[in-house]
Specification:
The protein is mainly α. It is 70% helix and 9% strand. It has helices at 2-11, 25-56, 59-70, 84-120; strands at residues 15-20, 123-128. Helix 2 (25-56) packs antiparallel against helix 4 (84-120).
């Protein structure tokens, strides 16, 4: 009979209260770098797909035609900045800047969390098994 009581107690879910007192800044930097590189690649691919969709709808040619009709043909040279190779270059530059900024800001955030957690004790987390 005592075996049945002990097995009933072991079936009850356990609850553990933990505190996240420190985050390793080096690990945060590595993960943030990899995620921001993936985000940058996705942004460049999305830019290419969006440009191809807009070009397939003949938006650029209609805009150039409209500028010629209105007589503002000299402004049609501005459409050279909207050609695919330049757009890919712009998207790549923005992606590289985002990689640097996101990595630096995430690492700085981890360091700030460590300072604040040393003052207030960190974030409390309750874990429970099912």
């Amino acid at each position: 009979m005592s075996d049945h009581v002990s097995s009933a107690r072991s079936d009850a879910p356990r609850r553990v209260d933990l505190a996240i007192a420190r985050i390793d800044a080096w690990t945060v930097m590595k993960v943030a770098f990899l995620l921001s590189v993936a985000l940058g690649i996705a942004m460049v691919v999305a830019t290419i797909v969006l440009w191809l969709m807009v070009d397939a709808m003949h938006v650029f040619s209609q805009l150039e035609e409209f500028l010629q009709t209105v007589g503002a043909g000299r402004y049609a040279a501005f459409l050279d900045y909207a050609r695919l190779p330049r757009v890919i270059s712009y998207a790549t530059i923005v992606a590289v800047i985002n990689v640097v900024l996101l990595t630096a800001l995430s690492t700085l955030g981890a360091m700030l969390y460590n300072v604040v957690a040393s003052l207030v004790g960190g974030v409390k987390v309750s874990l429970m098994d099912e």
